[in-house]
Amino acid sequence: MTFNNILSETENGITTITINRPKKLNALNQETIKELHKAFKAANEAKETKVILITGSGEKAFVAGADISEFADFSVEEGRDLAAKGQELLFDFVQNLETPVIAAVNGFALGGGLELAMACHFRVASNNAKMGLPEVSLGVIPGYGGTQRLPQLIGKGRAMELIMTAGMIDANQALNYGLVNHVTSQEELLPFCKNLALKISRNSMVAIAQAIQAINANYQDGVDGFEVEINAFGYCFGTDDFEEGTSAFLEKRKADFKGE
Ligand code: COA
């Protein structure tokens, strides 16, 4: 699969997707959103991919937001459509993938960039990263899930302040807020994330997919997360991985999971 705006490569069970528009600080235009959808879908369906990493190319930015030049003259309907399509194709899509997705935030993650990082299952930042939702400084609001996911991750008061001030926080503040799980040097970011991905990939991928679904259920209106957990727990008992994992424990050996 070839793309104009992204790179995707798989090694040791880890697919790394890199947004590759460094001259535009990896801003998300609509073509990039469509390409990301295709790349995430392909990686999720590929048997060899256990974990997906997403990062930005260059040393400056993860993603500096949605591409402002594309929507500057949009109407009300076009604006609504832009948010709806983007949420469906990329942000909700990534959040609900069965394959774990880690955002390696390597610089500016602003607007749609932070929204993309927040849609991932968790985030690691390099120490030069800066994060924020500056949309109100452009006369608009976050439209790719930012008003929902930011308060879920850092609490309502902090989210209100960050969105209202259109400010940016640095990597350490993001760590302090729980927005990212770890902060590394710039050089260590990808090796650190790949190491985490390897640890994840030694476990049962079929169980991990069920865990993602159950955790996400906590954030869905009208869904009883405990009920989802009970069903997902039961589902695992019918998998080969469960048989292998419990047998391996009782036989005092390492489990060899097939993800089935
Ligand atoms: N959409 C479109 N283009 C963008 C962009 C965005 N969100 N963010 C950066 N770019 C482009 C710039 O227009 C510039 O292009 P040019 O060289 O053709 O003029 C290029 O990327 C480099 O950006 P520049 O602003 O010159 O870099 P900087 O180091 O001075 O500033 C930022 C970096 C991130 C502070 C600044 O680019 C910025 O504020 N970006 C917009 C952030 C934003 O509001 N995002 C939310 C969008 S809803």
Notable characteristics:
single chain; 260 residues; alpha/beta; 2-enoyl-CoA Hydratase, Chain A, domain 1; 6-stranded mixed β-sheet; 4-stranded mixed β-sheet; 11 helices; 10 strands; 16% strand; globular; binds coenzyme A
Summarize the topology.
Layout: E1 6-11, E2 14-19, H1 30-45, E3 51-56, E4 61-63, H2 68-71, H3 76-95, E5 101-105, E6 108-110, H4 112-119, E7 122-126, E8 130-132, H5 146-154, H6 156-165, E9 169-170, H7 171-177, E10 182-184, H8 189-201, H9 205-217, H10 225-236, H11 240-250
Parallel strand pairs: 2-3, 3-5, 4-6, 5-7, 6-8, 7-10
Antiparallel strand pairs: 1-2, 8-9
Summarize the structure.
The protein is α/β, with parallel strands linked by helices and 260 residues long. The protein has eleven helices and ten strands. The strands form two sheets. A six-stranded mixed β-sheet has the order 1-2-3-5-7-10, sandwiched between helices.
**Gyration radius, in Å:** 19 Å
The quaternary organization reads as single chain
Side by side, the strands of the main sheet go: 1-2-3-5-7-10
- Spell out which ligands are present: coenzyme A
CATH superfamily annotation of the largest domain: 2-enoyl-CoA Hydratase, Chain A, domain 1
Strand percentage lies at 15-25%
Structural class: alpha/beta
Helix % is 40-55%
User: Could you tell me the number of beta strands?
Assistant: 10
| Model regions low in confidence, pLDDT < 50 over at least 5 residues | none
Biggest beta sheet attributes: 6 strands, mixed
Principal-axis shape: globular
Compute the number of structural domains: 2
| Global mean pLDDT | 97
Termini separation comes to 26 Å
Q: How many DSSP H or I helices?
A: 11
Q: Under the CATH scheme, which architecture of the largest domain would be assigned?
A: Alpha-Beta Complex
Please provide the ordered H/E string of secondary-structure elements.
EEHEEHHEEHEEHHEHEHHHH
Write down the CATH topology of the largest domain: 2-enoyl-CoA Hydratase, Chain A, domain 1
CATH class of the largest domain: Alpha Beta
